[in-house]
Write a structure and sequence with these properties.
Blueprint lengths: L2 H30 L9 H44 L4 H18 L1 H4 L1 H9 L5 H43 L3 H8 L4 H16 L9 H28 L8
Helix pairs in contact: 1-2, 1-9, 2-3, 2-5, 2-6, 3-6, 5-6, 6-7, 6-8, 8-9
Length: about 250
Amino acid sequence: MTEARLRALAGACLVAFLVLATVPYIYLVQTFQYDDILREPTGVILAAFNAGGTSLVLAWFAFALAAFFFTFVALALSRWLEAATGNAHRLATMFGVASGLLQAIGLARWVFVVPPLAAAHADPATSEASRAAIEAVFTAVHQYGGVAIGEDLGQLTLLVWTIGMAAAFLRMPGLWKVLGALPAITVPLWLIAQTELLHSANPSFTAYETAPFAFILWQGWLLALGAALLATAFAGRAAPQQPVMA
């Protein structure tokens, strides 16, 4: 595959990822009050989830698939960078792939683990002791599968991938150098966001909610990068070919 086609593929993957991730996220915000609802008591979370029905589960499934699709984004971008610069970026790519997988695993709990817990919790025949046990199970799954694997490890590996990609673009000329500098502002925000995750397990830690700002800026960078890749790829195809002088 030519460098131009790899550039177009990488740009298309970036834009597709943003669409695939944004649509279910907006639905979750509107119908499930995500992610503010995660600060509510466990019983409230389970009741709201059960009330959401099948459409809510499918939204979480789509969100998890979007996270998994990010593995292809990391691979496609790596392929183009290698073709454009001649340098392999395998280590950064490994972290990008790992981030997509870790976040998909964390999100999958809402599809395969939480539904039966929420249904049992809402069942009138369930005793109070059983409800307490269900809430304990949910908390354990949420803290380990969601916070530890999906958010903490998922965000840290994403941070390493972002730094690796930024470093690669900063070594390139013109527009690509500018795009390499843009994600730098997200790095401290990702690191500060870890305090919120630590606070969820140990309230003695002061929480600073910077993750939403980091994600917004990071997604803005991906959109700009995807648009630049597609625009330059199509501009190159549209440009007239110069005759070769003998």
